[in-house]
Amino acid sequence: MEKKRMGKLQKIWITLKNNAQLRIGLLLLIILLLIAVFGPVFAPYNPKRLNDDLLAAPCAKYLFGTDKLGHDVFSQILCGAATSLKIGFIAAMISAVIGVIFGGVAGFFGGVIDQIFSEIMNIFLMLPTFFLILLIIATFGSSMLNVMIVIGLTSWVGNARLMRAQAKAIKERTFIKSSIAMGESKFSILVRHVIPNGIFPIIANTTMNISGAILTEAGLSFLGLGDPNVISWGQIITAGKGDLPKAWWISTFPGIMTIFTVLTFFLIGEGLNRVLSPKMDAKK
Amino acid sequence: MKRYLFKRILTGILVVAFSVMFNFAIIRLAPGNPTRRLAGKDNPNPATIAALTEKYGLDKPIAEQFVLYVKQLLHGDLGYSYVSTAKVSDLIKSRVAPTLMIALTGAIFGLVIGTLLGVFAARKRGRKIDTFLCSISYLFDSTPSFWLGLMMILLFSSVLDWFPTSGMYSLRVNAVGFARFLDLLKHMALPVTTLVLIDIPYYFRIARSSVLQTMSEDFIMTLRATGMSERKIFNKYVMRNAIIPTVTVFGITLAYMITGVAMIEIIFAWPGMGRLMLESITNRDYPTLSAIYLLLSTSVAVMMIVVDIVYAWIDPRIRVE
Amino acid sequence: MSLLELKHIDIQYKTPVKTVYAVQDVSLCVEEQDSIGIVGESGSGKSTLAMGILRLLPDNITTVRGEALLNGKDLLAMREKELQSVRWKEVSVVFQKAMNALSPVHKIGAQMEDIYLVHYPNEDKGVIKNRILELLHLVNLADRVYYSYPHELSGGMMQRVAIALALIFKPKLLIMDEATTALDVVTQTQILNEIMVLEQKINVARIMITHDMSVVSSTCKKVVVMYAGRIMEHGRVEDVLVNPQHPYTQGLMRSFPSFTGEKTNLRGIEGNLPDMSVMPACCVFADRCPYAQARCRSEIPALTEKAPGWQVACFRMEGGEADA
């Protein structure tokens, strides 16, 4: 047992050694999580506090300066990290769950179900997603929960397509056929064998979806459709937009943080994909 | 091929149908009174209420309302913007050209530069320049377009003062002829550059990976074994095979062009569809919003079918399916 | 002078992690109109050998050493230009996966024409087309293939296209790399028969790379048995396959149904290929050999002549006759 564990750890280590994207991505993720968890503790000011210095340039007192109302940008950024991560994670999870179930059912059951489900996927694929999100948020209000749900509901098709392909392939494998022969119910086979065995590409794609969700949230905030009750990087960027010529720091720093965060998940996703299909990796 | 095309057209029709239903539903499902929503005011006057009830049959059963709605749509009646009281269709018409102007220019430059860089990187695979280009592409891929736009303004307008920050023409100068064209170009420079920078990594990655993919195909080995020059193999065979995904992606980008540039239009106050969208959102101008949405879904559906046709044309393998 | 003479060919794959010794010290002669089968299980280096001497392996990660004299000129030492002028005109290849042997988005006729133009850039288009059609007929294909895309043909038809393509310049040497492995038995037999008929007509020598002993026994005059990158035994088919000397050949023979159709002795050889990333210092087959002795694990057996044109790399040969 001990030996087996060691072998696994060693394998992970080797994977990391050969996979720069994954390595850098995970490193960035650790930093990011630390910021999100401990950021509020280390924030020098209450992010909502209106300090006396308006539009102060970055200095020792205000590391990233202040905005026109006197908010300390550094504290705001630290507190906004959790918002971005939360929205990214939850939205991506929603899309993963829907995608896995939808794609799993379509691929595993096949036949008419598959045809109908595939057609629904095709329709969703053709919808102008971002505008759809805008329209819904503009109509139903921009609470953080709404934002997460809507992003999740509009980004599951990629996962569903991956899962469908996986389910179709796994269905043909012997151990599934023997499970069917042994009388295990179809639903139980789907949940216990097909999905766990085909989940890896969905994990990689979901990591990428976190990036997408964070970007979407930033875009919504920028359009004034962010949750007014939370601090998010997109909103800080928007707040600084009007003062850009005189106070570059307000919009610049949260933007850099956004890039950094999106990049993190993007790299991890790419890295996982490379682990999955090392073919493109082999130096031919 | 015919069957395939037929299927795609069917999907396209379903997409449009879905969008129509969605539009119909969202105004009626949204919290609050649909009259209020359509009027855009919390307390519309009785005359407005009466007019709207009449127009959309709001007192009739849902099914009847839907039939009425579809009928109006089929007549090209997208309703009136309550903000400017102009016909929504006219409003949109006036905004399409500026959007297409920057969107197309940006898409073409992005396509050309991104693809060239991607092919270049694929040929230099594993070398420093390849790694460098890949890293840069990751970086730009992670950049929100609106933020990049802001940074462009900061750098090229505020600091360097090379380009104007907003609009299509300078308001104070009333230039004509070529001078006016130059003025337009100057105004286009920043939004288009931003768009190109956002698009490049996309085409870069696709071109790079499909060139690498093609170069590892078996038929490349055959051609090498025949003594064909590497240059001819690359220019004729690798490129022709590797270009297929790029063409498809370009088509899809064109389909989503209008949403793609919305953010950038907003940043640079470019008088296009994106700005109209933002204005409608801030004013909760539902007739305009839903009209834009319908237009978008229809154009996306149409473009996707066009992409499929083009795809079938450049990739003979699709034709038989 | 032999048509092709290989002298001490070594081929290595180098990756950052390890070096794989894919082919070790292979020497071989191919005479005009010869037909030689190279057999061995997958991973034994037979394809690598063929690709290596034609310099078709990616040069950034492979090293090929030794000499490969084609009509006395060393392929491995040639300049790029000279090599290109030799390729396909004197040596052509029918590759493993014929389905992917041509570009999927160009018509077959157009590709064959392009290939023709490589060596005769100024040839008249009409002449080329006639030549291509003539070749297609030669392999029993209809004219319409000229205007088809690869995916429109079946595996067997593409295999014929690949053979026609390989014969386009009437080469002296044809290398068939598992060329019929992917086909069903009927088509395979058909194509093999056609090839043997063609050979009589056009005077071409053939190297047949396969793991199928029956293909070798029915179509080749000589056989080379490779294992883990080395030649274990080679000689005339009627010698080697009838009375195999090397324990590995004997094992291989037992893993295939005999020619007469008896399937009684169908059993494989125990064990797996050795780790090819370790430079061997002993007989590569020792681990799986039923007769292995201490010497087999400390020395590399050289190829020893058993009879004229029949060589075996086994210490058991030195002690005179080996009883099979």
Write structural notes for this entry.
The complex is a heterotrimer of chains A (284), B (321) and C (324). Chain A has twelve helices and no strands. By secondary structure, chain A is mainly α. Chain A has a single domain, classed as MetI-like fold (Orthogonal Bundle). In chain A, helix 3 packs across helix 10, helix 10 runs antiparallel to helix 12 and helix 11 runs antiparallel to helix 12. The C terminus of chain A is likely disordered. In chain B, helix 10 packs antiparallel against helix 13. Chain B is globular. Chain B has 14 helices and no strands. Chain C is of the alpha/beta class and 324 residues long. The chains are: A mainly alpha (284), B mainly alpha (321), C alpha/beta (324). Chains A and B meet through helix 4, helix 5, helix 10, helix 11 and helix 12 of A and helix 1, helix 6, helix 7, helix 8 and helix 11 of B.
Keywords:
heterotrimer, A: 284 residues, mainly alpha, MetI-like fold, 12 helices, 75% helix, elongated, disordered C terminus, B: 321 residues, 14 helices
The overall pLDDT average of chain A reads 82
Low-confidence stretches of chain A: 279-284
How many strands of chain A? 0
| Straight-line distance between termini of chain A | 37 Å
Shape of chain C: globular
What does the radius of gyration of chain C come to?
A: 20 Å
Number of domains of chain C: 1
CATH class of chain C: Alpha Beta
Helix content of chain A: over 70%
Summarize the biggest pleated sheet of chain C. Answer: 8 strands, mixed
- State the share of residues found in helices of chain C, binned by percent: 25-40%
Biggest sheet layout of chain A: none
| Helix-strand pattern of chain C | EEEHEEHEHHHEHEHEEHHEE
CATH superfamily (homologous) name of chain C: P-loop containing nucleotide triphosphate hydrolases
